[in-house]
Design a protein that fits this description.
Elements: H1 10-13, E1 28-31, E2 33-36, E3 44-53, E4 55-56, E5 59-60, E6 68-77, E7 80-87, H2 91-99, H3 113-117, E8 129-133, E9 136-140, E10 147-149, E11 156-159, E12 177-178, E13 185-191, E14 197-203, E15 209-216, E16 227-228, E17 232-237, E18 240-242, H4 245-249, E19 259-261, E20 267-273, E21 280-284, E22 289-298, E23 301-308, H5 314-323, E24 335-343, E25 348-363, E26 375-380, E27 390-395, E28 401-405, E29 416-419, E30 429-437, E31 442-449, E32 459-462, E33 472-477
Antiparallel strand pairs: 1-7, 2-32, 3-6, 3-33, 4-5, 6-7, 8-9, 9-10, 10-11, 12-13, 13-14, 14-15, 16-17, 17-20, 18-19, 20-21, 22-23, 23-24, 24-25, 25-26, 26-27, 27-28, 29-30, 30-31, 31-32
Bound molecules: fe (ii) ion.
């Protein structure tokens, strides 16, 4: 099924095969092209999501964050592997089909100048991450509400407000954290009226939604991710702040142009007790980061692992590459895995570099989330400034870094860990990633040994088409097919 009524323009395709080519069709089929052997213990569902449609009727979106959310589902069962992809039926997706152009996004303006954009908030593309909780599957976008999807068919069931609890902006960020011991989910949402604040949420194991705590922040900042320990929600708030809002409100410039990196403001770490107690703030030197990998309590300290980036180009330099997403990604995959140790009683944060290799999209064996972990999994660029073409396992105990590079100009995405069994030791399992094959203009799902990705995939699942670069996803062990 082809979903865009205006698909097929040559203007984007003529630029050559790119992991950022739109996939306008929706597929559903049993995969027969499998190299190697799917491990018998690998059973479950891999969900991936990203901006699948980066041009509407031949009009490319101007920013990597502004493509329509497309979710892919890869089911590993005793019958084999099944692939399915569907677009999230957001309001903007339907409108795009009708009017034949992208909506105003984070970095994309509607055609028609200021009048066409004035007082318009960026459209909710629901393209950033998924949350699997209980019987529910949600697609997420950090500036608005989640969409509820059928976990099997991927049909869009509607926009979710959790019983009206997500009010006003309704932001429910794209990096919720699940405590593997309690099955609680914690998340946050930015709000700016009447003043900038962060709202913290909890969803119980039984799917009861509640607000944990709301705390003010001195200025509206770009806060993409957070961390969870057994006791705290941990926010590392960098000085990527709104400095130039007026031209944006007037419709003269897109939203991303309102942001600036202002290192003299420093980074603020905020520890919010999970029971809703008083938050503690600790000031630190300015950092520039997007993703956190894990966090945990260690004695009286709180430890947070994140991917820190070179901030010398500032927000504008960084963001320029997000606009030029079909060009070079610049520093996007050249981050450094770093460990912050927050000693709140002394009001101090210390930093340690965990690995020199450039990386992004950090992951771990999610059964270790909120407690100390030994292995981190990352996507990285083997060439500085290049696209992500390798998956690496970092062993924090030995310091070993083992990488698999796909080569041939192909790319990979965030690797997700799948355990070989629920009781297997940490790291005993596989890494799942989607390789975009530039020349073939197709994608493969790669299954790599998590401890030795350098040995190459044990299985490569050849899809009939390509899957555009995905941002994030989830692996659910043991599919509950209906
Ligand atoms: Fe993210």
């Amino acid at each position: 099924m082809t979903v865009s009524q205006h698909s097929g323009s040559g203007s984007v395709a003529d630029l050559g095969s790119s992991p950022w080519d739109s996939q306008h069709s929706e597929h559903d089929y049993r995969v027969t092209d499998i190299e190697g052997r799917i491990p018998e213990q690998l059973r479950g569902v891999l969900y991936r999501i990203g901006p699948g449609r980066l041009d509407v009727a031949g009009h490319p979106v101007d920013h990597i964050f502004d493509g329509d959310g497309m979710i892919s589902r890869v089911e590993f069962s005793d019958e084999g592997v099944r692939f399915r992809n569907r677009y999230v039926r957001t309001r903007s997706f339907d409108t795009g089909n009708r009017v034949g152009r992208p909506p105003r996004g984070f970095g994309t303006q509607r055609p028609g100048g200021a009048l066409a954009n004035v007082l318009r908030f960026p459209a909710n593309m629901s393209n950033t991450n998924v949350l699997r909780h209980g019987d529910h599957l949600y697609s997420l976008w950090e500036g608005g509400r989640p969409y509820r999807l059928d976990p099997d068919t991927l049909e869009t069931l509607g926009c979710e407000s959790f019983g009206g609890a997500l009010t006003r902006l309704g932001a429910f960020s794209a990096h919720p954290k699940t405590d593997p011991r309690t099955r609680e989910v914690f998340n946050f949402g930015l709000d700016f009226f009447p003043r900038p604040m962060i709202r913290c949420y909890r969803i119980s194991a039984a799917s009861a939604f509640s607000e944990v705590r709301t705390f003010p922040i001195p200025r509206l900042a770009f806060v993409h991710d957070f961390a969870l320990t057994e006791r705290h929600l941990v926010f590392v708030i960098d000085p990527i702040v709104v400095r130039r809002p007026v031209p944006v409100i007037l419709g003269l410039r897109p939203f991303d142009r309102a942001l600036s990196y202002v290192p003299e403001l420093g980074t603020t770490v905020v520890l919010v007790p999970r029971d809703g107690g008083e938050p503690v703030r600790i000031e630190h030197d300015a950092l520039f980061h997007f993703h956190v990998n894990n966090a945990y309590e260690d004695g009286g300290d709180t430890v947070v692992d994140l991917v820190a980036h070179d901030s010398s180009a500032g927000w504008d330099g960084w963001n320029g590459h997000l606009h030029d997403y079909r060009g070079t990604p610049g520093p996007a995959f050249g981050g450094q895995l770093r460990r912050l140790r927050v000693t709140s009683r002394r009001g101090r944060v210390t930093e340690e570099t965990l690995a020199d290799a450039g990386c992004e999209f950090p992951q771990l064996d999610q059964r270790r989330a909120t407690t100390a972990h030994r292995h981190s999994y990352v996507a990285s660029a083997s060439v500085t400034g290049g696209n992500p073409d390798s998956v690496a396992t970092i062993d924090h105990e030995t310091g070993a870094i083992r990488s698999f590079v796909v080569g041939d100009g192909n790319t990979v995405c965030e690797p997700l860990f799948a355990a070989s069994s629920p009781t297997a030791a940490e790291g005993d399992g596989w890494l799942l990633t989607i390789e975009h094959q530039a020349e073939q203009r197709r994608s493969r799902v790669l299954v790599l040994p998590a401890d030795r990705p350098d040995l190459g995939p044990v299985a490569a699942i050849g899809l009939r088409h390509h899957v555009p670069m995905t941002f994030h996803g989830a692996f659910e062990a043991r599919a509950q097919g209906r």
